[in-house]
Amino acid sequence: MRFLQSLCLLPLATAFGSSWYHNAFSWQKPLLGSTVNGVHFPSLLDADLEDLAAGLEKGLFTSVDLVNAYTRRILEVNSTLKAVTQLNPDALTIASELDIARTNGTIRGPLHGIPILLKDNIATADKMDNTAGSYALVGAKVPEDSTVAAKLRKAGAIILGKTNLSEWANFRSKNYTSGWSTTGGQTEGAYYPQQDPSGSSSGSGVASALGLALASLGTETHGSILAPSDANNLVGIKPSVGLTSRYLVVPISEHQDTVGPMARTVKDAAYVLSAIVGSDPNDNYTSAIPFSSDKTPDYVGACDYFALRGARIGVPRNLIEIDGDDDPSTSPYAPLLPAFETALSILRSAGATIIDDLFLPGFDTIKKENFEFTVVDTDFPRNLATYFAQLIVNPHNLTSLKDLERFTHSFPEEDWPEHDTLTWDRSFNVSATTTPAQAWGNYTALQHYAGELGLFGALKNHSLDAMVLPTMFAMGLPAELGSPVISVPMGKYPEDAKKLKNGYGNQWLVAPGVPFGLAFMGERFSEEKLIGLAYAFEQRTKVRGQVRPYLVPRTEVGDVVVGVGMDVGKGDL
Ligand SMILES: *[C@@H]1O[C@H](CO)[C@@H](O)[C@H](O)[C@H]1NC(C)=O
Ligand SMILES: *[C@@H]1O[C@H](CO)[C@@H](O)[C@H](O)[C@H]1NC(C)=O
Ligand SMILES: *[C@@H]1O[C@H](CO)[C@@H](O)[C@H](O)[C@H]1NC(C)=O
Ligand SMILES: *[C@@H]1O[C@H](CO)[C@@H](O)[C@H](O)[C@H]1NC(C)=O
Ligand SMILES: *[C@@H]1O[C@H](CO)[C@@H](O)[C@H](O)[C@H]1NC(C)=O
Ligand SMILES: *[C@@H]1O[C@H](CO)[C@@H](O)[C@H](O)[C@H]1NC(C)=O
Ligand SMILES: *[C@@H]1O[C@H](CO)[C@@H](O)[C@H](O)[C@H]1NC(C)=O
Ligand SMILES: *[C@@H]1O[C@H](CO)[C@@H](O)[C@H](O)[C@H]1NC(C)=O
Ligand SMILES: CC(=O)N[C@H]1CO[C@H](CO)[C@@H](O)[C@@H]1O
After folding, report:
1. Which residues does the UniProt record annotate as the domain Amidase (predicted)?
2. Which residues are near ligand 9 (CB < 6 Å)?
3. What distance in Å separates the CA atoms of residue 265 and residue 45, rounded to the nearest whole number?
4. Residues with CB under 6 A from ligand 8
5. Which of the residues 36, 46, 193, 401 could staple to 558 if both were Cys, CB 3.0 to 4.6 A apart?
6. DSSP 8-class letter at 30
7. Rounded CA gap, 317 and 442, in Å?
């Protein structure tokens, strides 16, 4: 969750010269990958699910090899980036069982034997902790896997480890940074030294970006999948609230929380999404899913090169706010604008009709009023207490947000008061002074201004399939509405970018080479359509491969393959 943090920090820029922007991506030699059993195999930085599945299928390598290779990659970059906090001690055993099953002809599905990382607020009933980045939950145990983790396992995925996050998914303090937690330290992005990784699914973003697993799961309340996907050159799918179960995921707000994939390609994200969707008696928001469990949309099949043909796509210009002071072209974020115009022309040339200059009249009211804070602040104490009550081991006997605050203020490693808990104070205040009827009033007002007078009204009025924006402007209304968004890589800040630090002053939000994305927004449960549009854009632009991290782990799968054709001497075994 990050209530448009970066938007609050805009107005620092001095003027660029007229040649400040160049849209050219510097061409870089592709990283080479490795030779495995005599066969060339793409680098794990770029390998997609179909590459991995083909390698496993042909017997070039095993899932055990993949776990070993990814583990070494994680450890290579961890001291700098701190993206992965825990490794699953059972991952090799699980991989070996899945390898045996494969040899035996049992393949559970496309994710069979594929390593995936989970944000450290998605619980697993195994040897790993689920901490939300806080010592309050170190040692806590859940009765069973979260529903999304259970579904991944059923689909044959290997849960490789847990990724760092902004503590409590950025719902603790006014004085901390994206990707910082007391248990995990400070995550960094890999596209510029000391890049702000964005958040709160920061470790999931950095890990997927660098190929520390095939993909990861993140969670979002307001921007927490989309923002780190934007900043880490990824495809992030923020699903409709209710499409994926939140059971045994550390909550912020039942009205806005959702779990989704962060991957390197649209198709990989679609594969992972397919594995985790579905109704769940333990999360009754999933009963809103408009299709039965045997009729789940074919998200992978939706990846159609021609999906943009005939599509009607709106551009709600009044949501783009690069202002700060006077002249938007002086903002560090200014390079987003020409890149966005280029993206629109690509959508047009792929056959879409762009309905430009839409104005969403509800947006100004949303900005003036506190509807969203009221909804989220009244949900949090209640939803958190429910999570605590579900624990079967609760080392500090926490039952409420008050208990958590007492713990956080008295446990030195929680770094209080340097890192305050003012978000909780706000939540106490709001929940103490808001009746259920008033909370409902705020929720319905939010739906009206963000929906009828916002996203949904415009989709309907103009018969649109989707709306697009630079991702950093596409987070608020869909968060408030529980509607889906997909972010796809769109570009990066140029070599002469005007650098901008985060509000804390320790990491770069904008710097040369830092990536950014294009977001597709639509109706609730329109993921299938959005995936098609996003795929058609991705296939025509292939931006991800042109934006390269400054820090790349070197271990490739060939370095760990044991047996005939082993690539002796390539790795540092
Ligand atoms: C990554 O680094 C952090 C900080 O030093 C450490 O606590 C964590 O355990 C490391 N992760 C792994 C997988 O070793
Ligand atoms: C292999 O397949 C056979 C028959 O389908 C089954 O009985 C056996 O349990 C399987 N073994 C493993 C290790 O999966
Ligand atoms: C959904 O579940 C929660 C708790 O599990 C319960 O309080 C709520 O009444 C349920 N809502 C509906 C519509 O069933
Ligand atoms: C938690 O409660 C149990 C049982 O009442 C007690 O034994 C334990 O000391 C408590 N732990 C803490 C940290 O308060
Ligand atoms: C914010 O955190 C920094 C570093 O821990 C500390 O120096 C500063 O005093 C804190 N600011 C506030 C307002 O608490
Ligand atoms: C919460 O309310 C108290 C008492 O009115 C006030 O002093 C405090 O500033 C409020 N805190 C926040 C974070 O709103
Ligand atoms: C929103 O909640 C506040 C209390 O926090 C209340 O005063 C206000 O009337 C509510 N607004 C609506 C539109 O219901
Ligand atoms: C949709 O059209 C109606 C009727 O013209 C208008 O009142 C409303 O503001 C429009 N909604 C949006 C979001 O543009
Ligand atoms: C340096 C640091 O904080 N390391 C932590 C990383 O995460 C694991 C698991 O949550 C902790 O045990 C480490 O102490």
Report:
1. 65-418
2. 85-86, 129, 131, 183-185
3. 12
4. 360-361, 453-454, 457-458, 461
5. 36
6. P
7. 26
Task: Give pLDDT, residue 324.
Answer: 57
**How many Å lie between the centroid of ligand 4 and the Cα of residue 408?**
17
Q: Which amino acid is at 125?
A: A
Which run of H or of E encompasses 276?
Answer: helix 266-276
- Contact in structure between 339 and 516 (CB atoms under 8 Å): yes
Q: Which of 6, 63, 198, 224 is catalytic?
A: 224
H/E/C letters for each residue in 174-195? CCCCCCEECCCEECCECCCCCE
Distance CA 39, CA 51 (A): 12
Looking at the predicted structure, is the pLDDT value of residue 460 above 90?
A: yes
Q: What residue spans of 82-201 are helical by DSSP H? A: 91-103, 147-154, 167-170
Closest ligand 7 atom to the C-alpha of 440?
14
Q: Rounded distance, CA 32 to CA 528, Å?
A: 34
Who contacts 408 (Cβ-Cβ below 8 Å, separation ≥6)? 134, 136, 172, 414, 416, 421
Q: Distance between terminal CA atoms of the chain?
A: 39
**Distance, CA of 135 to CA of 243 (rounded, Å):** 30
Query: Tens digits of per-residue pLDDT, 214-225?
Result: 999 999 999 999
pLDDT tens per residue, range 190-235: 999 999 999 999 999 999 999 999 999 999 999 999 999 999 999 9
- Omega before 18 within 30 of 0, i.e. cis: no
CA dihedral 84, 85, 86, 91 (to 10 degrees): 0
The ligand 5 site (C-beta within 6 Å) comprises: 175, 418, 420
Beta bridge partners of 41: 34
What pLDDT, in 10s, does the model give residues 265-316?
A: 999 999 999 999 999 999 999 999 999 988 999 999 999 999 999 999 999 9
Give the whole-angstrom CA distance, residue 332 versus residue 192: 15
**Amino acid type, 461:** N
- Taking only the tens place, the pLDDT of each residue in 504-532 is 889 999 999 999 999 999 999 999 999 99
Each residue's pLDDT tens digit, 13-53? 222 222 222 222 333 334 467 787 788 888 999 999 999 99
CB 413 within 8 A of CB 166: no
Q: pTM for the full model?
A: 0.91
3-state secondary structure of 297: coil
Q: Are 43 and 211 in contact (CB under 8 A)?
A: yes
